[in-house]
């Protein structure tokens, strides 16, 4: 990670019945950092603390080594793209972009040069004289980004910037925004509840749930090794089990009740363990095919309870033979495997868990 640029230390905020509790995170210079969490988790409240809109009860905010905890919002040198863009409908695109420059001392040519450069970079030259009320959601977003960058901030903050964009247009805008931020080489702090958006945009992620920051790190680590059950559930991981660790000569298994799961970690016998298996880490075993070493200790026979056909993948619900549960595993796989394995409701099959990817969760 680059040198720490934005640093939040032990931040606490009380708002009526909601609070942010002991929030600490860091963002490197030039990094694109995404704060991820469900609606109502405290993302926007934390951003308003960064912007100076909320005074924190306790804690410190540093930007580029300077304590800005008590600075006025206009002195924090932060660009801000709010959820609803907050553009001036009676002004054209160009005057919206220039608005933030009017409060700064600039030569008569500098604002025009800045606007020219941003319009070129964002490819909005062709409508710079249009009123913003006549623009699409994606076009308004680009104008809001240009206005935030025009003041040449030290960091840019995005508050759910794609929430009002049509689903079909979002992916292209993700790519465009990331390219723009890379080109201007600015540090970005972006909040969202959208998992795909967070993974696409962020280099490092932080997860906040119910006012607590639960995990922060590289995006692969958040998605592959969530620390807690609440994070795993938020990431839509379904196969979560609780059981007692049992030590054997050949390793450690967890007794779930009606079956055991072998795990890669060493866990003291008798410890209660909570673990998770991602839907895509459960493999369907083709009859007669050899089973890989990483799968062979966790092979289960049973039947398919339900099959769901979704646009980009399929889900099946699998019940282990003799299980008292309606189903035991939710399994996700590409659509082509449905025909390859001739899968249907009621079919008896074998499945295996990818042991190295079994996730142990903290309490």
Instruction: Determine the number of helices (DSSP H or I, runs of at least 4 residues).
Output: 9
Chain-averaged pLDDT: 92
Count of individual domains: 2
Order of helices and strands: EEEHEEEHHHEHEHEEHHEEEEEEEEHEE
Uncertain parts: none
Major beta sheet summary: 6 strands, mixed
Structural class call reads alpha+beta
By CATH reckoning, the class of the largest domain would read: Alpha Beta
How does the overall form come out from the CA principal axes?
elongated
Which fold name corresponds to the CATH topology of the largest domain? Answer: Rossmann fold
Strand content: 25-35%
Name of the CATH architecture of the largest domain:
3-Layer(aba) Sandwich
How many runs of DSSP E, i.e. beta strands? 20
Rg from Cα: 25 Å
């Amino acid at each position: 990670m680059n040198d720490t640029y934005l640093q939040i230390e032990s931040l606490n905020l009380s708002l009526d019945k909601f609070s942010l509790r002991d929030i600490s995170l860091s963002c490197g210079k030039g990094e694109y950092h995404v704060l991820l969490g469900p609606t109502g988790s405290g993302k926007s409240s934390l951003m308003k603390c960064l912007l100076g809109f909320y005074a924190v009860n306790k804690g410190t905010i540093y930007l580029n080594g300077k304590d800005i905890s008590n600075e006025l919002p206009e002195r924090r040198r932060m660009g801000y793209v709010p959820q609803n863009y907050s553009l001036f409908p009676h002004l054209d695109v160009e005057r919206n972009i220039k608005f933030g420059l009017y409060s700064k001392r600039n030569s008569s040519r500098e604002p025009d040069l800045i606007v020219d450069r941003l319009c070129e970079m964002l490819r909005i030259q062709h409508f710079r004289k249009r009123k913003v009320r006549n623009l699409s959601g994606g076009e308004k977003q680009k104008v809001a980004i240009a206005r935030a960058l025009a003041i040449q901030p030290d960091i840019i903050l995005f508050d759910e910037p794609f929430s009002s964009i049509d689903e079909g247009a979002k992916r292209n805008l993700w790519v465009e925004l990331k390219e723009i931020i890379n080109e201007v080489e600015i540090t970005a702090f972006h909040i969202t509840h959208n998992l795909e958006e967070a993974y696409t945009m962020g280099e490092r992620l932080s997860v906040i749930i119910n006012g607590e920051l639960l995990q922060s790190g590289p995006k692969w680590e958040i998605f592959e090794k969530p620390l807690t059950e609440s994070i795993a559930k938020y990431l839509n991981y379904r196969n979560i089990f609780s059981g007692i660790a049992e030590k054997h000569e050949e390793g450690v298994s967890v007794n779930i009740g009606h079956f055991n799961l072998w795990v890669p970690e060493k866990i003291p016998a008798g410890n209660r363990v909570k673990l998770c298996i991602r839907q895509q880490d459960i493999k369907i075993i083709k009859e007669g095919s050899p089973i890989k070493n990483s799968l062979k200790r966790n092979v289960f026979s049973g039947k398919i309870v339900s099959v769901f056909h979704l646009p980009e993948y399929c889900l099946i619900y699998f019940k282990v033979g003799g299980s008292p549960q309606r189903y035991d595993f939710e399994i996700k796989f590409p659509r082509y495997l449905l025909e390859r394995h001739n899968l249907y409701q009621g079919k008896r099959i074998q499945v295996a868990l990818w042991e190295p990817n079994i996730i142990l969760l903290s309490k």
